[in-house]
């Protein structure tokens, strides 16, 4: 992976993390850095899942891939928030 791929993964991860955080109702007790980390991980895993189902490269915007990534980010944010609440 080249530097432009890393930078784009970070930018996409920020957007995916924030959108995933917006999907989860209520206030989350995690910081922005955790949100970004969850977003980056969700973007990478979501791309792999979309590739496995052959919906990663479509004509125009990849709506299905984005929905998978946002859903994974929402699950990650909710799981991390729940683990922080138990402490």
From TrEMBL:
> Main localisation, per the record?
membrane
Record's bilayer topology term: Multi-pass membrane protein
Keywords from the UniProt entry: Cell membrane, Membrane, Transmembrane, Transmembrane helix
Which locations, inside or outside the cell, does it occupy?
A: Cell membrane
Which residues span the membrane? 6-24, 31-51, 63-80
Q: Which GO terms describe its cellular component?
A: plasma membrane
By sequence similarity, the record places it as follows: Belongs to the UPF0410 family.
- The protein's name: Membrane protein
Q: Which species is the source of this protein?
A: Streptomyces resistomycificus
